[in-house]
Amino acid sequence: MTQRGPEPEQFFPRNTIKEKARLLPMTNVANLYAAADQAIKGMTGEARDYLKTGAAELRAACAAASAGDGQLDTAECERIMAAANALRDVAGSFGYSLISEIASSLYTLVSNPKWNDRQVLTVVDLHADAIEAILRQNLKNDGGATGSAIVASLRKAVYRFASDR
Amino acid sequence: MPTLKAYDLSKIKIVVAEESPFVQRLVAAVLTGLQAPHPYAANTSDIAMRLVAETEPDLVILDWELKPMSGLEVLRALRNEETSPNPTIPIIMISGHCAIERVTASRDNGANEFMGKPITVDALYKRIVTLIERPRPFIRLETYFGPCRRRKFEEYGDERRRVNPHPIISPDEAA
């Protein structure tokens, strides 16, 4: 027979959010969302500048890494991953879901130790090209036919790179 | 999730611990849009810990990628350190990298909720509403202190559609 340990202590702590939040019976949550969406919309111009700066940082990180020899070192990978993170974290909030997707791909690519040879930088550069093209053409959401073509071409490049390894 | 109720969040004090000033402002914009007060913002773990002690917030929104302590370390410290200003404070972990390991680690170290970036109004509001309407009991075990983990993290069904089923790099390639 298995012996059960003592019952864990269980309690409900004071919930000050519950205490302070007041139900707004006459308010539709859509109105709250609309106000918050408007606040985000107000940052769109700033977001585009942020994404452009992020794309430039990605390009700079890639160029700096290209100057080295052998495997990519931790600092080089981290710089590229940080640039990818910064792009991914923000792009989706402003409708640039393609950039989020490409930045996620970039992060997966560079964070994978088996792909840390300098050849990966060619594929990183293609990701940077794609992000810049999306910003230039202001492609939102899936980017339509152009967006599909960009993703298909990146997928092909990644496949080719991965198959060679 | 049934129809969401609208809440007045104007009395709720929130600390946002996030390294990127732009993301800090984005979260602040979402919160103020939802009629919550402007949050206290921290861009390092040290400032986050100090703000939690000084401002006695009702909620902490904690990014995984914090420094010098990571968000996960801050979470552990808030839950388990003797010096923690409030070991039961509600904590929403946020992360740009939503691998299952991060979700599990957040849950196993006492986060109330986990939210993947990008930040959206709907995702953040739903988590706050969960904290209001469905608070979980706290459990104290030898190896764990935090919200009961038996209930899974709330499944925010419509958000799953945000995960691309056909990523540029397939899991097979990355393996």
Give a description of the structure.
- The complex is a heterodimer of chains A (165) and B (175).
- Chain A is mainly alpha-helical.
- In chain A, 68% of the residues lie in helices and 3% in strands.
- Chain A contains seven helices and two strands.
- Chain A is extended.
- The model of chain A has no long low-confidence stretch (mean pLDDT 91).
- Helix content of chain B is 34%, strand content 17%.
- Chain B has six helices and eight strands; from the N terminus they run ββαβαβαβαβαββα.
- In chain B, the strands form two sheets. Chain B has a five-stranded parallel beta sheet, sandwiched between helices. Chain B has a two-stranded antiparallel ribbon with strand order 7-8.
- The longest helix of chain B has 13 residues, at 21-33.
- The radius of gyration of chain B is 16 Å and the shape is globular.
- At the A-B interface, β1, α1, β2, α2 and α3 of A face β1, α1, α5 and β7 of B.
Q: State the distance separating the first and last CA atoms of chain A.
A: 53 Å
Assign a percent range to the helix content of chain A.
55-70%
What spatial form of chain B do the alpha-carbon principal axes imply? globular
Low-confidence runs of chain B (pLDDT<50, min 5 residues)? none
Q: Main beta sheet of chain A: strand number and arrangement?
A: none
How are strands sequenced across the largest beta sheet of chain B?
Answer: 3-2-4-5-6
Q: Report the average pLDDT across residues of chain B.
A: 90
Estimated share of beta-strand residues of chain A: under 5%
Quantity of strands of chain B, as a count: 8
Largest sheet of chain B: 5 strands, parallel
Mean pLDDT of chain A: 91
Number of helices of chain A: 7
Q: Percent range for helical residues of chain B?
A: 25-40%
Category by helix and strand content of chain A: mainly alpha
Q: Give the structural class of chain B.
A: alpha/beta
| Biggest chain contact | A-B, 56 and 52 residues
Basic shape of chain A = extended
Helices of chain B, by number, come to 6
Query: Segments of chain A where pLDDT lies below 50 for 5+ residues?
Result: none
